[in-house]
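Sample intake sheet
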Amino acid sequence: MDAFICVTCGTQYPPSPDPPAACPICLDERQYVGHDGQRWTTMAELAADHRNRIEEVEPRLVGIGTEPGFGIGQRALHVGGLLWDCITLIDAETEAAVRAAGGVHTIAISHPHYYSAMVEWAERLDAQVLLHEADRAHVMRPDARVEHWSGERLELGDGLELHRLGGHYEGGTVCLWRGGAGGRGALLSGDIVQVVSDRDWASFMYSYPNLIPLPAAEIRRIRGRIDELEFDRVYGAWWPAIMAEDARAKVLRSADRYLRALGEG
C-alpha cells in the first residue's frame, strides 16, 4: 500500500489502500487547501520528477531541499547527527549523502508544517523523531520512532539545544547551535522566527499564508525567550532566509517593531 502525500503541504500519511478524505494540516486556518482542491501523490511519483539539492551552508551545516519546489518548499538542515526540520522527498541519493555526512540519529522539527515524511526519513536513517508534545495532535502519521518532549528547553548534546518559543504553533521550536557561525552561535528557526525579504529583519505570525498576526502578549513572551539565547546568525526555513550577522539584536528589534505596529511599543 502507498503512504499518500498531500501535494499542498507535503505531509505523508500512513499507508492505506486509498488516499485520506482530506488533509487536516491544510484544513487548519494556518494553512490552506490548494487552489485545485485536495490532491495526493506518493514518494515514488515525487521521486520521478524531483531531486534533492544538497550543499554545505557553512562548515558542518548541510542544507537539503527539493527541486523543483514541492509542498511548502522548506529545506532541512543537517548538523552533526541531527536533521533539523524535514522535507518530504527521500531517495537513495539523499540517503547516501546524509550517511556520508555522518548520518542522523535524531530528527527534530520546528512545527507541524514541516513534519512532512518524517517517519519514512526516520525509518531509512534509523533515527528517532523529537517533537514538542504541545503539537501532538498534529501528527498525521503516528509511529514508535516519534517521541514527544516537554518543557521549554531540551539539550541534545554536541552544542545543540531545542527551545520552545510557541507563536506559530503552541509547540513551535527553534534549535540553538552553539558551534554555528564560527562559534558565535546560530539559531535554526524554521519559520517560528521568520527571516523576511529584508534579511535584517524577522517576523512572527500565527499564519503566514493567511496573514493572521500574533497578539502582543505572545510577541512579548517570545521576545523574552529569545533574549535569553546567544547567537549571531539565523537560518530560516528557505535557502535565502539567512540573517548572517548580529542576528540576535536584529530579531529583538524586529519584535519591538511588531509591538509598535500593534500600538504596544
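Comment: The chain has seven helices and 19 strands. The CA atoms of residues 205 and 213 lie 5 Å apart.
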